[in-house]
Amino acid sequence: MTRKITLNLDLNENDLDALQAVLSSPAAVAKVISPSDPREQIRIVDVLAEMAGGVSKALGHAMADVVDKQIATPAQDHGRSM
């Protein structure tokens, strides 16, 4: 059975860095969690890879939103005349 899980995380930059470190090393994480069960390690790696893809996609959308807002906001003239 497959379940769709949606996470809403409120992370500061340090927390985001920590999450990215975990997600970028799924094999190391899996070996620590389940050192003697290769099948469980594979499952853990697969889950972390899926999570990494979701985080990457979410960050991409967040960055796109920031860029869109910057483009949509006209530059301030700051009192300069031409």
In short:
It contains three helices and no strands. By secondary structure, the chain is mostly helical.
The class by helix and strand makeup works out as mainly alpha
Beta strands, count: 0
Strand content: under 5%
Cα-atom Rg, whole angstroms?
A: 20 Å
Helix content: 55-70%
Flag low-confidence runs. Answer: none
Q: Roughly what is the average pLDDT, rounded to an integer?
A: 85
Distance between the termini: 65 Å
Overall shape: it is elongated
Give the helix tally.
3
What profile does the largest beta sheet have? none
How would you spell out the order of helices and strands? HHH
Which properties best describe this structure?
single chain, mainly alpha, 3 helices
Description of the molecule:
- There is one protein chain.
- The mean pLDDT is 85.
- This protein has helices spanning 13-23, 26-33, 38-72.
- It is mainly α.
- The chain has a domain at 40-71.
- The protein is built from three helices and no strands.
- The protein is elongated.
What topology does this entry show?
Elements: H1 13-23, H2 26-33, H3 38-72
Helix pairs in contact: 2-3
